[in-house]
Amino acid sequence: MTETLINYIETVAAYAPVWGFFIILFFMTVESSFIPFPSEVVMIPAGFLAAHGKLSFGSPGLDAAVAIFSGILGSLAGAFVNYYLSLWLGRGFLYKYGKYFFLKPAALERAEEVFRTYGAGATFVCRLLPAIRQLISIPAGLARMNLFSFTLWTGLGAGIWVTILTLVGFGIGHSTKDMTYREIVHRGTDIVGQNLIWIVIGCAVFFVAYILIQNRIMKRQKPEKAAETA
To answer: Is 212 part of a structural domain of the chain?
Structure first.
């Protein structure tokens, strides 16, 4: 499937100088919804093209920044599709008919299990993990997760992932002038894969630290409020 997507998106990439950011937005929206395909085939080449000034603005730094913004926006849009569809359709419908829309019951059950165990942390860290990246928005919708929290943690997770992929492509573009689309994707994917464990660990540590700090602040606020009402 990846190779087929590479061939297809490579053809579309010919329009990158004019429509590059809209192309990124569209494909990242699709990627983040219930139609699974690797975001590496979009964001790594986007970073490569940005490094060579071949996106809309012709400025490497600006093109990379707008590519990242477009990727994050697309990721959030796709996540909202999953969130609201699951909220609207319900668990019964998804488990019964999801298999006809790339949503196998086993995958849905696994996503729900992860969400029940880790809650908001799952929508953050799982944005960095293959296979479950798209699905984690579904149990969030089924559980009616607070929309602000969902947007915040999904945006942060997607932002880190999109930024990493874009910077990897940007780095490859700086060191190499001529590569085929397929070579860019595979080389970038290898680089990310070799360092993925450290990326996930770093994000998990960040989330745990945030929760600990938040809990400490909340504990301090409770005695203060109690003193004010006394």
So the answer is: no
Q: The pTM is what?
A: 0.83
Distance CA 39, CA 24 (A): 10
Dist. CA 125–CA 151, nearest whole Å: 14
CA–CA distance, 5 with 27 (Å, rounded to integer): 11
85 lies in a domain? yes
Does residue 230 lie within any of the structural domains?
Answer: no
pLDDT in tens, the chain (230 residues): 567 777 777 787 777 887 889 999 999 999 888 777 788 999 999 999 999 988 888 889 999 999 999 999 999 999 999 999 999 998 888 888 888 777 888 888 888 888 888 777 788 888 887 778 888 899 999 989 999 999 998 999 899 999 999 999 999 998 887 888 888 888 998 988 888 888 778 877 877 776 676 566 556 555 555 445 55
Range of the domain at 19: 2-196
Tally the domains of the chain. Answer: 1
Q: Is 158 contained in some domain?
A: yes
